[in-house]
TrEMBL record, chains A, B:
Keywords: Metal-binding. Pfam families: DinB. Belongs to the DinB family. This is DinB family protein. It comes from Halobacillus salinarum. The lineage of its organism: Bacteria, Bacillati, Bacillota, Bacilli, Bacillales.
């Protein structure tokens, strides 16, 4: 299995759980936040989806972008599906050599690192915020929540 | 740098942030939980500390154990310091070859995997629960929180 295929499996073992959580967020809870200084649920979801897509773009030496404008009203599950598909596509395009290529992230991270390491950092970021979202979704009244990682 | 040294750096880049969060939890908030079905703050902290210590023990082919009994009243920051020290010690004892050794975790994970992979899974588990703890600590009234990973 290539490195990118391995990483896609690992990524999806968390992303599929994220997408299950997103399915549980009713429209009236899109603006829910646990405290006045917390990020709103929909902003947190967008931040997670956009970040991994950005990391996958940078790993491909492409300009990071977003699939939706700030004001777009596309429901979160549809966004999640599109971001997931496009992110997998970008990672799939990386050869084992591409994974070793140093990418320009000095401004963001203080140092340049290999594409593969950037993807791993990106996934840590996603796991962190998904952990937060678990608390949000429980506070929205859901008590039947998935395990934090897909059961193999 | 050996694989265990690399892993210790990676582990501490998250554990030090966890320990900063733990320092912020006042004694009266030890039993705080966001919803009736959530885990109490002190139980969540103990679960994080005990899990990584357990994974490091298994990676060393030692019997997993706990440093404190359930009823022990040692303050959380002191527990965190001791668990962190002992966990680092255990990981430090692993040679590069030990990291490749298959360890017996079939009952827990459904398959046996190399010690190094078990440690990585353990850290994902810690990042997930640390993400949850960030929400708890903000709900306790703290608005000045660290970044989710130690800034290099």
């Amino acid at each position: 299995m290539s490195r990118s295929e391995q990483f896609i499996n690992y990524f999806l073992s968390h992303r599929e759980v994220l997408n299950e959580l997103i399915e549980k967020i009713e429209h009236e809870h899109y603006t829910y936040k646990p405290t006045p200084t917390s990020m709103e649920a929909q902003k947190l979801v967008n931040h997670i989806l956009e970040s991994m897509y950005m990391f996958a773009n940078i790993a491909n030496k492409q300009q990071p972008g977003k699939l939706y404008e700030e004001e777009d009203s596309t429901p979160l599950p549809e966004r999640a599906k599109n971001y997931t598909d496009k992110t997998v596509e970008l990672i799939h395009a990386l050869s084992d050599e591409d994974m070793e290529e140093i990418v320009d992230v000095k401004k963001m991270l203080g140092r340049d690192i290999p594409a593969g390491s950037l993807l791993h950092l990106g996934l840590d970021h996603e796991i962190h915020h998904k952990g937060q979202l678990f608390v949000y979704v429980r506070e929205m009244g859901h008590t039947e929540l998935p395990f934090y990682i897909r059961n193999e």
